[in-house]
Amino acid sequence: MKNKGLILGLFSLLALVQIVVPLSMISNRETIIKEGVEFKFKTAPIDPYDAFRGRYVWLSIKENEVAVPKGLDLKHGQLVYAFVEVSEDGFAKFLSLTTEKPRGLAYIKAKSGYVYKGKVRLELPFDRYYMEEGAAPKAEKIYRQHTSRDKQDAYLTVKIKDGMAAITGLYVAGEKIEDVVKKVK
Amino acid sequence: MNKKALQWFYQELPDLVNKGVLSPDAANKIKEHYGEVKVRDKKWMFLIVCGVIGALLIGLGIIMLIAHNWDDLSRGARAFLSILPLVIGQGLSMWVLLKRPNSDAFKEGAAIFLSLMVGASIALISQTYNISGDTQDFILTWMLLIAPLVYFMQASIPAAIYLIGITSWAGGFWDAPAKALFYWPLFLVVIPHFIWSLKIKTYSLRSTILSFVMAASICYGAGFSLGRNWPGGWVIINSSIFTIFYLLGNLSFDKITINWQRPLRFIGGVGICVLMFIFTFADMWRHLISAQEHFLVKSSPLTLFFDSVITTVIVSVSLVLFLHVYRKKDVLKILFGVFPVLTIFGYVINMNTVILSPLIFNLYVFGLSLFCIMSGIRKNNLSLANIGMLILAVLIIVRFFDSQISFIIKGLVFIIIGSGFLATNAVLVRRKGGSK
């Protein structure tokens, strides 16, 4: 049957696309992890629930504001490129931003959030850290125990390459969160 | 003639012949007259239902296993695991296409499983690499990757999954109509399949399910994407959509089973009834424009253009269908079909005076209820008469909450309505009994 051959051919094509999409997601992230530059972001983890993707801790990055360059009218949700640098305490902070794709320097592609008093809150491409079911609430609890008003020692390690970012780990009190959670059991 | 009744009648025939009520010759002539009834193979139907439910359960089970998020697995193992179920689903579908190309049960089941596995695969990768929570992108990628399955596998439940997916995708852009408008081209993707499934008589259950999902999807999709710059425009858009459903559901196409029409007629009828009651409230019309001001979104001229084109198409279709039933002189359908015309009229005069529009709709609902009651009684149609009385009762009750009337009068009117209900039903039931 001619028709059957056509359907099988088209189906094979679809199957190929269905595999290529997830594979390209994997290879993108792997490239960032292998070749990217690592930065540490101070964060506060909070635990919500995602029906599709399981448990994760929601990450509230501390230093996520950057001054809006003068004369730039940012719209909510607009694509921006934010330059990152390491401050004296070893953690990442945002230097400035631009709306045109930059070269050189480490930068992150993000969306602009609310603008307030000349500063814009960035919607960063890392806002959740997935953990094993049951581990996320524990992680949040551990974080609360380890933190006080003047001392907040949770941070996220992120690799950055060409504006793309991939999370490589979440640390509380200098230890990987997965290890800390295991000790609590 | 009703297939089920005929089936029952054919089962009775041998008994009737045995008892001498009918001669064998007459029995044969009856069979010749009505022709054969194709009895649907129940086993086959059972297989499809089992296949669908089984595929759904297994697929969802795998998604849940993935959602547990196994910390001990390495990134490589996770990458492998995220592709594995996808490949299994594809292999299964391929096998069905090769070996069981004529089995609806296999095709539907395999397509559902593969549809779910595509989502599971992307989800597991998002989880492994902590890809940030852009749910909208996730859903759209997933839906686009499964849409062709609807055609390759001729499967309706994946079409329903797709419709639910694109609707929730559009819902995420309620504040960005330029994106939400893409709901419509995405929606059109399943239309050829929908029409195909209507033409295939053999499995009306799936076209019924699809019709329901489709009607619900359009209602939400329109709400998310249309009239975002048109204060109060929702009254016209929604009344047109429900009227289209109702009238389409009533159209009698030759050779198309009537099952599929019920969901459209049902959703359309219920939608019109709910809206017409909302439109009887004076407050609704008074605040029609101002209530929406906060939710208006600034759109680009292009967005506005497409918004108005789609809106115009929807309103025009409802008017064309109304003209169609008007020519056929079916009063009940005309009364329902005129709803968007009245709404447009009400919207226009509401800009000058806020008193007339609610008055028009109160009269409309009153007239509709009276017509239903009268023609129900005339035709001995118990359900029509009851629907009429229900509409009338609800109209009186909602008007009561509007106005300052003493409890005594309220109470008396309630008793009168209740008695009317009982009396009319008693009369109709007795009349029906008498006619037997």
Mind explaining what this structure looks like?
The complex is a heterodimer of chains A (about 180) and B (about 425). By secondary structure, chain A is of the alpha+beta class. Chain A folds into two domains: about 1-35; about 35-185, no CATH class. Chain A is built from three helices and twelve strands; from the N terminus they run H-E-E-E-E-E-E-E-E-E-H-E-E-E-H. Chain A has helices at about 1-35, 135-145, 175-185; strands at about 35-45, 50, 55-60, 65, 80-85, 90-100, 105-115, 120-125, 130, 155-160, 165-170, 175. In chain A, strands 1, 2, 3, 9, 10, 11 and 12 form a seven-stranded antiparallel β-sheet that branches. Chain A starts with a helix and ends with a helix. The model of chain A has no long low-confidence stretch (mean pLDDT about 80). By secondary structure, chain B is mainly alpha-helical. Among the domains of chain B are: about 1-40, no CATH class; about 370-435, no CATH class. Chain B is built from 20 helices and no strands. Chain B has helices at about 5-20, 25-35, 40-65, 75-100, 105-130, 135-150, 155-170, 175-180, 185-190, 190-200, 205-225, 235-250, 260-280, 280-285, 300-330, 330-335, 340-350, 355-380, 380-400, 405-435. In chain B, helix 12 (about 235-250) crosses helix 15 and helix 15 (about 300-330) packs antiparallel against helix 16. The model of chain B has no long low-confidence stretch (mean pLDDT about 85).
